[in-house]
Amino acid sequence: MPEGPEIRRAADRLQQAVIDRPLTEVWFAFPRLQPYQLPLIGERVTAIETRGKALLTHFSQGLTMYSHNQLYGVWRVFKLGDAIDHGKRSLRVKLATAESAILLYSASEIEIWPTQEVNQHPFLQRIGPDVLDNQLGVEQVKARLLSTRFYHRQLGGLLLDQAFLAGLGNYLRAEILWLACLLPSHKPVDLADDRLTLLASACLSIARHSYAMRGTMDETAHHGALFRFKVFAREGQQCERCGGTIVKSSVSSRPFFFCPRCQIWVGVDP
Question: Which residues are catalytic?
Fold first, then answer.
């Protein structure tokens, strides 16, 4: 499943294609949504917002489309005159302007809400703050780590839990823990204050760096110039921090990559 940075980049592409242009065609596959088709003709998409791995498409007359791609959903952008080949995917949504169209395939979670009420959606009520929200700071993330809800959770599961920070996922988890020199078995309750600060900072910086660099992987680039994996999918390769060998394991039923030499307990013995 795509993680927060990939969802945000998709939203950017969709916005560029249709933002603030009158809709000339609106089509929904699901009968429950089809009554909205005609009323949306002539309206505009005012913003496409991400909440973790969910997308909120805001329309000018006060409606918002909630969508979640889950495992198989995908958005595609087409320009006027492009040949559209749906392939084997099932078309769910089409929003078109005079210049371009955005199409959603294979997703099943699609709903229309009044914009003022969309925050009451059950999924949006469950998730934590978006990791890519620029208003979210290190101290706020640290406060969540210290909260009774998350304090005793192992980091391997916590960093996949959208209730903690929306938009984190498996490759981000591996990179965050490598940067913080921690293992998935560590818990916030066990960490010294400076280690908690480093972990909170890593949660934000890794996700935001991935988004800013558009997921670019370049094995010759230095970290900070282009985004590239330090441990994820690098089993058997050398850790550039300590020279150890990166290994692969399974944590919370997901592949996990780490360096057993430098991702060690820092402080009190476990």
Answer: 2-3, 53, 254
